Amino acid sequence: MKLAPRMIQSMQILQLPMLALQERIEQELAENIVLEQVERREEPPDPVDSNGSEELPQRDLEQRELVAGSDDNNASDFERLDEISKEWPDDSYASGSMPSASRMQEAGDRHLDMMANAESRPQSLHDYLIEQFAYFDVTPELRQFGEYLIYNLDHNGRLPASLPEIVQVYGRSISLPDAEQILSLIQKLEPAGVGSRDLKECLLLQLRPTTPLRDILHTLISQHLEDVLQNRLPLIERKTGYSIDTIRAAIEQLSTFDPFPGTRFESQTSEHIIPELRIDKNDEGKYVVEILNEYVPQLRISRNYQRMLENTKDASTKEFIKKRIDSAKWLIDAIQQRYNTLRKVAQATIDHQTAFLDSGPEHLVPLKMQQIADIVGVHVTTVSRAVDDKYIITPRGIFPLKRFFIGGTTTDDGEEIAWDVIRIHLKELINKEDKKTPLSDDAIADALAKQGYPLKRRTVTKYRKILNIPSSRQRREY
Description:
8 strands
Protein backbone atom coordinates (compact mmCIF):
# COMPACT_ATOMS: atom_id res chain seq x y z
CA MET A 1 0.00 0.00 0.00
CA LYS A 2 1.42 3.35 -1.07
CA LEU A 3 0.62 6.60 0.69
CA ALA A 4 0.21 9.80 -1.30
CA PRO A 5 2.45 12.72 -0.26
CA ARG A 6 -0.62 14.66 0.91
CA MET A 7 -1.67 11.77 3.14
CA ILE A 8 1.80 11.59 4.67
CA GLN A 9 1.81 15.34 5.33
CA SER A 10 -1.68 15.13 6.82
CA MET A 11 -0.51 12.46 9.27
CA GLN A 12 2.50 14.61 10.14
CA ILE A 13 0.26 17.58 10.95
CA LEU A 14 -1.92 15.34 13.13
CA GLN A 15 1.14 14.27 15.12
CA LEU A 16 2.59 17.76 15.60
CA PRO A 17 2.34 19.22 19.12
CA MET A 18 1.01 22.74 19.56
CA LEU A 19 4.32 24.61 19.30
CA ALA A 20 5.44 22.62 16.27
CA LEU A 21 2.07 23.26 14.60
CA GLN A 22 2.52 26.99 15.16
CA GLU A 23 5.96 26.83 13.55
CA ARG A 24 4.58 24.88 10.59
CA ILE A 25 1.83 27.43 10.04
CA GLU A 26 4.27 30.34 10.30
CA GLN A 27 6.46 28.63 7.71
CA GLU A 28 3.51 28.15 5.36
CA LEU A 29 2.50 31.80 5.80
CA ALA A 30 6.00 32.84 4.82
CA GLU A 31 6.22 30.52 1.80
CA ASN A 32 2.68 30.58 0.38
CA ILE A 33 1.69 34.04 -0.84
CA VAL A 34 -2.04 33.26 -1.04
CA LEU A 35 -2.33 32.36 2.67
CA GLU A 36 -3.43 35.05 5.11
CA GLN A 37 -3.79 35.03 8.88
CA VAL A 38 -7.20 35.93 10.25
CA GLU A 39 -7.15 38.35 13.15
CA ARG A 40 -9.00 36.95 16.15
CA ARG A 41 -11.07 40.09 16.48
CA GLU A 42 -12.59 39.64 13.02
CA GLU A 43 -16.12 38.33 12.67
CA PRO A 44 -16.46 34.77 11.34
CA PRO A 45 -17.42 34.38 7.69
CA ASP A 46 -21.13 34.61 6.85
CA PRO A 47 -22.79 31.24 6.22
CA VAL A 48 -24.78 30.44 3.08
CA ASP A 49 -28.33 31.66 3.01
CA SER A 50 -31.00 29.66 4.83
CA ASN A 51 -32.61 28.54 1.56
CA GLY A 52 -29.46 26.66 0.58
CA SER A 53 -29.02 28.73 -2.58
CA GLU A 54 -25.54 29.09 -3.99
CA GLU A 55 -26.34 32.59 -5.18
CA LEU A 56 -25.13 35.01 -2.49
CA PRO A 57 -25.46 38.78 -2.37
CA GLN A 58 -22.40 40.74 -3.47
CA ARG A 59 -21.64 41.82 0.12
CA ASP A 60 -21.66 38.17 1.28
CA LEU A 61 -19.46 37.12 -1.61
CA GLU A 62 -16.86 39.69 -0.62
CA GLN A 63 -16.82 38.44 2.96
CA ARG A 64 -16.53 34.69 2.30
CA GLU A 65 -13.15 33.22 3.24
CA LEU A 66 -11.52 29.87 3.63
CA VAL A 67 -10.76 29.82 7.36
CA ALA A 68 -8.90 27.05 9.18
CA GLY A 69 -10.88 25.81 12.13
CA SER A 70 -14.33 26.72 10.78
CA ASP A 71 -16.90 23.98 10.27
CA ASP A 72 -18.02 25.43 6.93
CA ASN A 73 -17.73 23.31 3.81
CA ASN A 74 -15.36 25.24 1.58
CA ALA A 75 -15.47 22.95 -1.45
CA SER A 76 -17.27 25.46 -3.68
CA ASP A 77 -15.32 28.59 -2.72
CA PHE A 78 -13.10 28.35 -5.77
CA GLU A 79 -16.10 28.44 -8.12
CA ARG A 80 -17.78 31.33 -6.32
CA LEU A 81 -15.06 33.92 -6.70
CA ASP A 82 -15.67 37.59 -6.24
CA GLU A 83 -16.27 39.91 -9.14
CA ILE A 84 -13.02 40.74 -10.86
CA SER A 85 -11.46 44.06 -9.91
CA LYS A 86 -9.94 46.07 -12.73
CA GLU A 87 -6.70 46.80 -10.92
CA TRP A 88 -4.47 44.60 -8.80
CA PRO A 89 -3.84 46.30 -5.43
CA ASP A 90 -0.44 46.05 -3.79
CA ASP A 91 -1.41 45.33 -0.18
CA SER A 92 2.16 45.01 1.00
CA TYR A 93 3.10 48.62 0.31
CA ALA A 94 -0.19 50.44 0.50
CA SER A 95 -0.10 54.07 1.44
CA GLY A 96 0.88 54.50 5.05
CA SER A 97 1.73 50.82 5.61
CA MET A 98 5.52 51.21 5.55
CA PRO A 99 6.96 51.71 9.05
CA SER A 100 8.77 54.93 9.75
CA ALA A 101 12.54 55.09 10.34
CA SER A 102 12.01 55.80 14.02
CA ARG A 103 9.79 52.74 14.45
CA MET A 104 12.30 50.56 12.63
CA GLN A 105 15.04 51.89 14.92
CA GLU A 106 12.88 51.19 17.96
CA ALA A 107 12.27 47.62 16.80
CA GLY A 108 16.01 47.16 16.26
CA ASP A 109 16.75 48.46 19.76
CA ARG A 110 14.26 46.00 21.26
CA HIS A 111 15.90 43.17 19.34
CA LEU A 112 19.34 44.15 20.64
CA ASP A 113 18.01 44.35 24.20
CA MET A 114 16.52 40.89 23.84
CA MET A 115 19.83 39.51 22.58
CA ALA A 116 21.73 41.18 25.42
CA ASN A 117 19.39 39.75 28.03
CA ALA A 118 19.31 36.24 26.53
CA GLU A 119 20.68 33.49 28.70
CA SER A 120 24.23 32.57 27.75
CA ARG A 121 25.26 29.00 27.04
CA PRO A 122 26.34 27.34 30.29
CA GLN A 123 29.94 26.18 30.60
CA SER A 124 30.37 22.55 29.63
CA LEU A 125 32.29 19.95 31.60
CA HIS A 126 34.98 19.75 28.94
CA ASP A 127 35.47 23.53 28.84
CA TYR A 128 35.72 23.63 32.63
CA LEU A 129 38.35 20.89 32.70
CA ILE A 130 40.37 22.39 29.82
CA GLU A 131 40.42 25.70 31.69
CA GLN A 132 41.91 23.97 34.79
CA PHE A 133 44.26 21.75 32.82
CA ALA A 134 45.95 24.83 31.33
CA TYR A 135 47.64 25.51 34.70
CA PHE A 136 49.68 22.27 34.60
CA ASP A 137 53.24 22.59 33.35
CA VAL A 138 53.54 19.86 30.69
CA THR A 139 55.06 19.63 27.23
CA PRO A 140 52.96 20.67 24.22
CA GLU A 141 52.69 17.01 23.11
CA LEU A 142 51.40 15.88 26.51
CA ARG A 143 49.08 18.88 26.74
CA GLN A 144 47.58 17.96 23.40
CA PHE A 145 46.99 14.38 24.57
CA GLY A 146 45.52 15.65 27.86
CA GLU A 147 43.00 17.79 25.97
CA TYR A 148 42.22 14.77 23.78
CA LEU A 149 41.54 12.71 26.91
CA ILE A 150 39.30 15.41 28.38
CA TYR A 151 37.20 15.64 25.22
CA ASN A 152 36.82 11.85 25.28
CA LEU A 153 35.21 11.82 28.73
CA ASP A 154 31.54 10.90 28.64
CA HIS A 155 28.77 13.04 30.12
CA ASN A 156 29.33 11.36 33.51
CA GLY A 157 32.97 12.48 33.51
CA ARG A 158 34.34 8.95 33.06
CA LEU A 159 36.60 7.38 30.46
CA PRO A 160 34.43 5.28 28.13
CA ALA A 161 37.33 2.91 27.28
CA SER A 162 40.56 1.64 28.77
CA LEU A 163 43.61 3.90 28.60
CA PRO A 164 45.61 1.54 26.28
CA GLU A 165 42.68 1.55 23.82
CA ILE A 166 42.53 5.35 23.87
CA VAL A 167 46.29 5.60 23.32
CA GLN A 168 45.98 3.24 20.37
CA VAL A 169 43.14 5.24 18.80
CA TYR A 170 45.00 8.49 19.44
CA GLY A 171 47.52 7.33 16.86
CA ARG A 172 50.37 9.63 17.82
CA SER A 173 53.61 8.83 19.56
CA ILE A 174 52.89 8.70 23.28
CA SER A 175 53.94 6.05 25.76
CA LEU A 176 51.54 4.39 28.17
CA PRO A 177 53.43 5.74 31.25
CA ASP A 178 53.09 9.28 29.89
CA ALA A 179 49.39 8.64 29.28
CA GLU A 180 49.01 7.41 32.87
CA GLN A 181 50.74 10.57 34.11
CA ILE A 182 48.38 12.81 32.16
CA LEU A 183 45.35 10.87 33.35
CA SER A 184 46.49 11.25 36.96
CA LEU A 185 46.67 15.02 36.43
CA ILE A 186 43.14 15.08 35.00
CA GLN A 187 41.91 13.08 38.00
CA LYS A 188 43.10 15.92 40.26
CA LEU A 189 40.74 18.39 38.59
CA GLU A 190 37.35 19.47 39.85
CA PRO A 191 34.74 18.14 40.15
CA ALA A 192 36.29 15.30 42.12
CA GLY A 193 35.91 11.95 40.45
CA VAL A 194 36.38 12.99 36.80
CA GLY A 195 38.69 10.87 34.71
CA SER A 196 37.75 7.66 36.55
CA ARG A 197 37.38 4.36 34.72
CA ASP A 198 34.73 2.78 36.95
CA LEU A 199 32.53 3.49 39.97
CA LYS A 200 35.10 2.30 42.49
CA GLU A 201 37.82 4.61 41.15
CA CYS A 202 35.34 7.50 40.94
CA LEU A 203 34.49 7.18 44.64
CA LEU A 204 38.10 6.72 45.72
CA LEU A 205 39.08 9.92 43.87
CA GLN A 206 36.58 11.83 46.01
CA LEU A 207 38.29 10.85 49.25
CA ARG A 208 40.14 13.77 50.82
CA PRO A 209 42.51 13.84 53.82
CA THR A 210 39.83 15.73 55.72
CA THR A 211 36.99 13.36 54.82
CA PRO A 212 35.35 11.94 57.99
CA LEU A 213 35.99 8.20 58.47
CA ARG A 214 38.39 8.32 55.54
CA ASP A 215 40.26 5.06 56.31
CA ILE A 216 37.04 3.14 56.87
CA LEU A 217 35.56 4.53 53.66
CA HIS A 218 38.68 3.55 51.74
CA THR A 219 38.31 -0.02 52.98
CA LEU A 220 34.60 -0.17 52.19
CA ILE A 221 35.02 1.26 48.67
CA SER A 222 38.09 -0.71 47.67
CA GLN A 223 37.18 -4.09 49.20
CA HIS A 224 33.46 -4.23 50.05
CA LEU A 225 31.66 -1.95 47.56
CA GLU A 226 29.40 -4.73 46.27
CA ASP A 227 28.46 -5.69 49.84
CA VAL A 228 27.64 -2.03 50.55
CA LEU A 229 25.42 -1.85 47.45
CA GLN A 230 23.62 -5.04 48.52
CA ASN A 231 23.25 -3.79 52.13
CA ARG A 232 25.17 -6.77 53.56
CA LEU A 233 26.20 -4.98 56.74
CA PRO A 234 26.55 -8.08 58.97
CA LEU A 235 28.88 -9.64 56.39
CA ILE A 236 31.02 -6.47 56.29
CA GLU A 237 31.08 -6.49 60.10
CA ARG A 238 32.45 -10.04 60.17
CA LYS A 239 35.09 -9.35 57.51
CA THR A 240 36.34 -5.97 58.75
CA GLY A 241 35.69 -6.02 62.48
CA TYR A 242 33.95 -2.64 62.29
CA SER A 243 30.75 -2.28 64.29
CA ILE A 244 27.39 -1.95 62.54
CA ASP A 245 27.07 1.62 63.81
CA THR A 246 30.50 2.55 62.38
CA ILE A 247 29.69 0.93 59.03
CA ARG A 248 26.32 2.70 58.91
CA ALA A 249 27.98 6.06 59.67
CA ALA A 250 30.55 5.48 56.91
CA ILE A 251 27.83 4.56 54.41
CA GLU A 252 25.94 7.72 55.34
CA GLN A 253 29.10 9.71 54.56
CA LEU A 254 29.53 7.76 51.33
CA SER A 255 26.03 8.78 50.24
CA THR A 256 27.30 12.38 49.93
CA PHE A 257 29.71 11.32 47.14
CA ASP A 258 28.71 11.84 43.51
CA PRO A 259 29.00 8.70 41.34
CA PHE A 260 28.38 10.80 38.20
CA PRO A 261 30.34 14.05 38.72
CA GLY A 262 30.01 15.21 35.13
CA THR A 263 26.21 15.32 35.03
CA ARG A 264 26.05 18.54 37.07
CA PHE A 265 27.23 20.39 33.96
CA GLU A 266 24.35 19.16 31.83
CA SER A 267 21.97 21.99 31.06
CA GLN A 268 18.47 21.40 32.34
CA THR A 269 15.82 22.80 30.02
CA SER A 270 12.23 22.92 31.18
CA GLU A 271 9.65 21.74 28.69
CA HIS A 272 7.10 24.37 27.70
CA ILE A 273 3.65 22.80 27.64
CA ILE A 274 0.61 24.30 25.95
CA PRO A 275 -2.51 22.15 26.47
CA GLU A 276 -4.59 21.64 23.34
CA LEU A 277 -7.66 20.21 25.05
CA ARG A 278 -9.83 20.98 28.04
CA ILE A 279 -12.52 18.98 29.82
CA ASP A 280 -15.66 20.65 31.10
CA LYS A 281 -18.90 19.26 32.49
CA ASN A 282 -22.03 20.13 30.53
CA ASP A 283 -25.48 20.73 32.02
CA GLU A 284 -26.18 17.00 31.96
CA GLY A 285 -23.10 16.24 34.07
CA LYS A 286 -21.13 14.65 31.21
CA TYR A 287 -17.46 15.42 30.59
CA VAL A 288 -17.05 17.13 27.22
CA VAL A 289 -13.76 17.77 25.42
CA GLU A 290 -13.09 21.21 23.99
CA ILE A 291 -10.30 22.14 21.56
CA LEU A 292 -8.07 25.03 22.67
CA ASN A 293 -6.76 26.63 19.49
CA GLU A 294 -6.44 30.27 20.47
CA TYR A 295 -2.66 30.06 20.12
CA VAL A 296 -2.84 28.64 16.58
CA PRO A 297 -3.13 31.23 13.78
CA GLN A 298 -6.37 30.99 11.81
CA LEU A 299 -5.84 30.91 8.07
CA ARG A 300 -7.75 31.94 4.98
CA ILE A 301 -7.09 32.29 1.27
CA SER A 302 -6.54 35.82 0.06
CA ARG A 303 -9.48 37.31 -1.86
CA ASN A 304 -7.04 39.32 -3.93
CA TYR A 305 -5.37 36.19 -5.29
CA GLN A 306 -8.74 34.60 -5.95
CA ARG A 307 -9.60 37.64 -8.08
CA MET A 308 -6.23 37.51 -9.77
CA LEU A 309 -6.72 33.80 -10.61
CA GLU A 310 -9.98 34.65 -12.38
CA ASN A 311 -8.70 37.82 -14.02
CA THR A 312 -5.26 36.86 -15.32
CA LYS A 313 -4.85 35.67 -18.92
CA ASP A 314 -1.28 34.44 -18.53
CA ALA A 315 -1.28 30.64 -18.35
CA SER A 316 1.89 30.32 -16.25
CA THR A 317 0.67 32.90 -13.72
CA LYS A 318 -2.72 31.19 -13.55
CA GLU A 319 -1.07 27.80 -12.95
CA PHE A 320 1.23 29.25 -10.26
CA ILE A 321 -1.64 30.84 -8.32
CA LYS A 322 -3.84 27.75 -8.68
CA LYS A 323 -1.11 25.52 -7.20
CA ARG A 324 -0.65 27.90 -4.29
CA ILE A 325 -4.41 28.03 -3.64
CA ASP A 326 -4.68 24.25 -3.80
CA SER A 327 -1.79 23.93 -1.34
CA ALA A 328 -3.37 26.49 1.00
CA LYS A 329 -6.75 24.76 0.85
CA TRP A 330 -5.15 21.42 1.67
CA LEU A 331 -3.35 22.91 4.69
CA ILE A 332 -6.57 24.48 5.99
CA ASP A 333 -8.44 21.20 5.54
CA ALA A 334 -5.60 19.24 7.18
CA ILE A 335 -5.65 21.49 10.24
CA GLN A 336 -9.42 21.16 10.51
CA GLN A 337 -9.15 17.39 10.14
CA ARG A 338 -6.51 17.40 12.88
CA TYR A 339 -8.91 19.18 15.26
CA ASN A 340 -11.75 16.78 14.43
CA THR A 341 -9.65 13.66 14.93
CA LEU A 342 -8.08 14.95 18.12
CA ARG A 343 -11.47 15.86 19.58
CA LYS A 344 -13.00 12.46 18.75
CA VAL A 345 -10.04 10.51 20.14
CA ALA A 346 -9.90 12.60 23.31
CA GLN A 347 -13.67 12.35 23.89
CA ALA A 348 -13.65 8.57 23.49
CA THR A 349 -10.69 8.34 25.86
CA ILE A 350 -12.30 10.51 28.53
CA ASP A 351 -15.57 8.61 28.25
CA HIS A 352 -13.58 5.48 29.08
CA GLN A 353 -11.75 7.05 32.07
CA THR A 354 -14.60 8.98 33.68
CA ALA A 355 -14.01 7.20 37.00
CA PHE A 356 -10.52 8.71 37.17
CA LEU A 357 -11.93 12.24 36.79
CA ASP A 358 -14.55 11.57 39.44
CA SER A 359 -12.55 9.62 42.03
CA GLY A 360 -8.79 9.83 41.33
CA PRO A 361 -5.86 7.75 40.01
CA GLU A 362 -6.89 4.60 41.87
CA HIS A 363 -9.85 4.30 39.52
CA LEU A 364 -7.95 4.29 36.23
CA VAL A 365 -8.84 1.28 34.11
CA PRO A 366 -6.65 -0.49 31.55
CA LEU A 367 -7.06 1.09 28.13
CA LYS A 368 -5.45 0.25 24.79
CA MET A 369 -5.24 2.50 21.77
CA GLN A 370 -6.87 -0.21 19.67
CA GLN A 371 -10.04 0.13 21.76
CA ILE A 372 -10.26 3.86 20.99
CA ALA A 373 -9.42 3.23 17.32
CA ASP A 374 -12.37 0.83 17.10
CA ILE A 375 -14.70 3.39 18.70
CA VAL A 376 -13.60 6.34 16.54
CA GLY A 377 -13.32 4.25 13.38
CA VAL A 378 -9.69 4.97 12.53
CA HIS A 379 -6.47 2.99 12.41
CA VAL A 380 -4.62 2.48 15.69
CA THR A 381 -1.62 4.40 14.30
CA THR A 382 -3.89 7.43 13.83
CA VAL A 383 -4.79 7.28 17.52
CA SER A 384 -1.09 7.01 18.39
CA ARG A 385 -0.28 10.12 16.34
CA ALA A 386 -3.26 12.01 17.73
CA VAL A 387 -2.26 11.56 21.38
CA ASP A 388 1.49 12.01 20.88
CA ASP A 389 2.76 15.10 22.77
CA LYS A 390 -0.79 16.38 23.35
CA TYR A 391 -1.83 17.69 26.78
CA ILE A 392 -5.28 18.08 28.28
CA ILE A 393 -6.63 20.20 31.13
CA THR A 394 -8.73 18.10 33.49
CA PRO A 395 -10.40 18.81 36.85
CA ARG A 396 -7.45 16.94 38.41
CA GLY A 397 -4.69 18.85 36.64
CA ILE A 398 -2.88 18.89 33.32
CA PHE A 399 -1.95 15.48 31.92
CA PRO A 400 -0.48 14.16 28.68
CA LEU A 401 -3.21 12.45 26.72
CA LYS A 402 -1.09 9.30 26.69
CA ARG A 403 -1.51 9.18 30.48
CA PHE A 404 -4.95 7.63 30.03
CA PHE A 405 -3.63 4.72 27.95
CA ILE A 406 -2.22 2.28 30.47
CA GLY A 407 -1.58 -1.40 30.62
CA GLY A 408 -2.65 -3.71 33.37
CA THR A 409 -2.34 -7.14 34.81
CA THR A 410 -4.74 -9.99 35.28
CA THR A 411 -5.27 -11.17 38.85
CA ASP A 412 -5.58 -14.77 39.92
CA ASP A 413 -9.36 -14.22 39.81
CA GLY A 414 -9.22 -13.18 36.13
CA GLU A 415 -9.91 -9.50 36.83
CA GLU A 416 -7.89 -6.96 34.81
CA ILE A 417 -6.37 -4.20 36.97
CA ALA A 418 -4.56 -1.10 35.75
CA TRP A 419 -0.84 -0.92 36.41
CA ASP A 420 -1.21 2.48 38.12
CA VAL A 421 -3.54 1.01 40.72
CA ILE A 422 -1.04 -1.73 41.58
CA ARG A 423 1.77 0.85 41.69
CA ILE A 424 -0.10 3.03 44.20
CA HIS A 425 -0.89 0.18 46.57
CA LEU A 426 2.59 -1.33 46.25
CA LYS A 427 4.29 1.93 47.19
CA GLU A 428 1.89 2.45 50.11
CA LEU A 429 2.75 -0.97 51.55
CA ILE A 430 6.50 -0.39 51.28
CA ASN A 431 6.30 3.13 52.71
CA LYS A 432 4.45 1.84 55.78
CA GLU A 433 6.58 -1.28 56.40
CA ASP A 434 8.90 -1.71 59.36
CA LYS A 435 12.35 -1.08 57.89
CA LYS A 436 13.98 -3.39 60.43
CA THR A 437 11.88 -6.26 59.06
CA PRO A 438 10.87 -5.17 55.53
CA LEU A 439 8.24 -7.03 53.57
CA SER A 440 9.38 -9.74 51.19
CA ASP A 441 7.74 -10.03 47.77
CA ASP A 442 5.68 -12.96 49.08
CA ALA A 443 4.48 -10.83 52.01
CA ILE A 444 3.60 -7.98 49.65
CA ALA A 445 1.63 -10.37 47.43
CA ASP A 446 -0.32 -11.59 50.49
CA ALA A 447 -1.01 -7.99 51.61
CA LEU A 448 -2.25 -7.02 48.14
CA ALA A 449 -4.51 -10.06 48.07
CA LYS A 450 -6.12 -8.93 51.32
CA GLN A 451 -6.81 -5.55 49.66
CA GLY A 452 -8.58 -7.27 46.79
CA TYR A 453 -5.69 -7.53 44.33
CA PRO A 454 -4.58 -11.19 44.22
CA LEU A 455 -1.28 -11.27 42.31
CA LYS A 456 1.50 -13.80 41.94
CA ARG A 457 4.83 -13.16 43.63
CA ARG A 458 6.67 -12.87 40.31
CA THR A 459 4.22 -10.15 39.24
CA VAL A 460 4.95 -8.23 42.44
CA THR A 461 8.69 -8.63 41.82
CA LYS A 462 8.33 -7.34 38.25
CA TYR A 463 6.41 -4.22 39.32
CA ARG A 464 8.80 -3.57 42.22
CA LYS A 465 11.75 -3.59 39.83
CA ILE A 466 9.92 -1.30 37.40
CA LEU A 467 9.53 1.19 40.27
CA ASN A 468 13.25 0.85 41.11
CA ILE A 469 12.40 -0.30 44.63
CA PRO A 470 15.23 -2.36 46.20
CA SER A 471 14.67 -5.86 47.50
CA SER A 472 13.71 -6.48 51.14
CA ARG A 473 17.34 -7.22 52.04
CA GLN A 474 18.50 -3.94 50.51
CA ARG A 475 15.71 -2.00 52.24
CA ARG A 476 16.52 -3.39 55.67
CA GLU A 477 17.86 -0.95 58.24
CA TYR A 478 20.27 -2.33 60.86
